[in-house]
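Lab meeting, item 3. Inverse folding demo.
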């Protein structure tokens, strides 16, 4: 009995020590991966007429620079109209900047700095917008290309994505230039023509910058924003993208003899294809609590409920639980691993004909730490001996490097984000794609952030119905860019 008692006492002691370690780590936890943005002395705000900025954004929305899946449907005259509009609307900005056009319609502006030894900064915002789905026009509160200023907002396609950023950047530069501000470091503005489809313009801009030996301190593009009702904290959190996922589409093809459907073989190509798709979907990349997802939770933890803070502070113990909880929703799972999404099918051209080739397409968003080579290897292992062909539809885009949260660029962007949003700032992963990936070779760090506040539900209007920029958010945007430029380039 004495031995049993000693064992029990030993177990109790171990539990008590473990509990004490958890309590101490929770009480003393600080995010380990971020530089202190509070040390940055931000330039003061400058007056920018928000009503005038709203009218300008409405005018930009009315210029229909719509990128279609088939470029032949695009209207190049609309891009030319936007270029002329920028020149006419922002004369002070155009007096201090030089403009270069690459890849036909992509804009590269340069505001020369007084000190060429300082690395420049690059601000990005694309010109094109996605189409409005046919038949949904009637669902908009205000017509989708009206650019109407009503109900405290500017309404229309592109008001957020991404003419909101483009107009805000030019409002900021125009106001600074009109007040006689001269940057010490060079400021570039890169505005791609086709971010929503090919991204060719951004790649051309990157090549133009590389040819001139540019290596920027940081690049800032769209990507993430301030979530006003972030689920973990139930309050606002400013999420700055430090990386974005890769992109690849796998085509799976099952070939068969074909023939009349009245005399089918035991297994048609469609059945073989179905088995392959199910097998691949059943063997996804495992979810992992690491990288930008872990960095995000570490930054948010001091502002989260005690149980969340305890789990994050003691990830050595609670990592499986954190992975399970974060991965319980599609949005949470997307930041933890490479996602696998079968999206398209193709078989026989007629219902009573057996297909000679049945194909399915699987879209992958590749997480940092993973690669297209590993994705293909998992797919091949999953299908095993099934007689199918696997091939990429085009060369995959790998995930971007993870930008620093200890660099000068991070402290500048984070400080400006905190000042505009009055919210905790956290690094995060962008699960979609932006033009900024093209500028990675000419920039020490790349960040993806728009300083506007939306609820989780509000984000559904981006690429959807009733896209609009509130006047309050527009004021945040113009102030953010003006203070960021003035601080980074002073």
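The presenter then showed the designed sequence:
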């Amino acid at each position: 009995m004495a031995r049993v008692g000693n064992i029990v006492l030993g177990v109790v002691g171990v539990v008590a020590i473990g509990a004490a370690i958890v309590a101490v780590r929770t009480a003393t936890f600080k995010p380990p991966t971020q530089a202190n943005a509070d040390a940055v002395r931000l330039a003061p705000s400058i007056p920018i007429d928000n009503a005038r900025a709203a009218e300008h954004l409405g005018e930009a929305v009315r210029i229909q620079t719509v990128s279609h899946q088939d470029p032949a449907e695009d209207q190049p005259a609309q891009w030319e109209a936007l270029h002329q509009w920028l020149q006419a609307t922002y004369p002070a900005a155009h007096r201090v900047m030089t403009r270069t056009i690459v890849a036909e319609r992509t804009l590269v502006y340069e505001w020369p700095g007084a000190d060429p030894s300082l690395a420049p900064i690059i601000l990005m915002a694309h010109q094109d917008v996605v189409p409005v789905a046919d038949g949904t026009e009637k669902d908009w509160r205000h017509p989708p290309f009206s650019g109407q200023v009503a109900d405290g907002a500017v309404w229309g396609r592109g008001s957020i994505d991404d003419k909101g950023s483009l107009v805000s950047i030019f409002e900021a530069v125009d106001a600074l230039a009109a007040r006689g501000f001269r940057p010490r470091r060079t400021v570039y503005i890169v505005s791609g023509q086709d971010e929503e489809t090919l991204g060719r313009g951004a790649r051309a801009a990157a090549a133009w910058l590389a040819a001139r030996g540019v290596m920027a301190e940081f690049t800032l593009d769209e990507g993430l924003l301030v979530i006003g009702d972030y689920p973990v904290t139930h309050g606002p959190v400013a999420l700055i993208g430090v990386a974005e996922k890769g992109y690849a589409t796998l085509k799976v093809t099952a070939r068969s003899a074909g023939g009349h459907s009245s005399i089918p073989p035991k297994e048609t190509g469609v059945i073989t294809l179905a088995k392959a798709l199910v097998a691949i979907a059943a063997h996804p990349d495992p979810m992992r609590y690491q990288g930008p997802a872990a960095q995000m939770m570490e930054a948010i933890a001091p502002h989260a409920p005690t149980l969340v803070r305890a789990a994050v502070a003691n990830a050595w113990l609670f990592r499986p639980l954190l992975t399970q909880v974060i991965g319980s929703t599609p949005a949470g799972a997307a930041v933890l691993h490479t996602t696998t999404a079968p999206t398209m099918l193709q078989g026989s051209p007629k219902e009573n004909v057996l297909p000679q080739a049945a194909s399915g397409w699987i879209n992958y968003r590749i997480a940092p730490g993973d690669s297209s080579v590993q994705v293909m290897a998992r797919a091949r292992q999953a299908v095993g001996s099934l007689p199918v062909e696997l091939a990429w539809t085009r060369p995959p885009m790998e995930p971007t490097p993870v930008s620093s949260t200890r660099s000068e660029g991070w402290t500048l962007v984070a400080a400006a984000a905190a000042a505009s949003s009055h919210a905790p700032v956290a690094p995060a992963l962008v699960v979609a794609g932006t033009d900024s990936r093209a500028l990675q070779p000419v920039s020490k760090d790349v960040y993806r952030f728009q300083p506007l506040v939306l609820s989780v539900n509000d984000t559904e209007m981006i690429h959807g119905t009733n896209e609009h920029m509130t006047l309050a958010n527009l004021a945040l945007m113009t102030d953010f860019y003006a203070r960021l430029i003035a601080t980074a380039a002073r």
